[in-house]
Design brief:
This protein is α+β, with helices and mostly antiparallel strands and about 140 residues long. The chain contains 5 helices and 4 strands; from the N terminus they run βαβααβαβα. The chain has a single domain, classed as 2-Layer Sandwich (Alpha-Beta Plaits), CATH 3.30.70. The longest helix has 12 residues.
Length: about 140
């Protein structure tokens, strides 16, 4: 068994859920998270890729600085982009299909498309029935 953790754009959640459902894995955990990657918190990466380049400079963000930023001199206030974190546990033989499907549903070609992590899972138990491992994740 493997755990797939994907950090994706907020607006790509419906397409991602549909893609996973089409593969027969509708069960997942979704969390709202904030973070930053290579875009360094630039919100333009989160916006529609069809927006003109000049639009990004027109958007004025009013970030709430952290206490660290208030106490220290930072060259730029660190901004965090809202994302969705999806977690799903699947059998080993499905991992490749799942990752490809998540990429297909989320890839825009712009920074901020997200990340996918695959981790081994030692075991699983369904609380309601006591089913273990493979039976517990289907």
């Amino acid at each position: 068994m493997k755990e797939i953790t994907a950090i994706i754009r907020r607006d790509k959640l419906p397409e991602t859920k549909q893609a996973l459902d089409e593969l027969g894995y509708p069960s997942l955990t979704i969390q709202s998270v904030d973070g930053r990657g290579k875009q360094k918190g630039a919100m333009c990466a989160e916006m529609d890729s069809e927006m003109p380049d000049s639009y990004c400079t027109a958007v004025k963000l009013t970030p709430t600085p952290s206490s660290y930023a208030i106490e220290h001199t930072l060259p730029k206030v660190a901004l965090y982009v809202p994302k969705r974190l999806i977690t799903i546990v699947v059998p080993d033989d499905v991992v490749s299909k799942m990752v490809k499907s998540i990429i297909k549903a989320n890839q825009t070609g712009n920074r901020g498309d997200g990340k996918i992590f695959v981790s081994p899972i030692e075991g699983a138990v369904r609380v309601r029935t006591g089913e273990k491992d493979g039976e517990a994740i289907t």
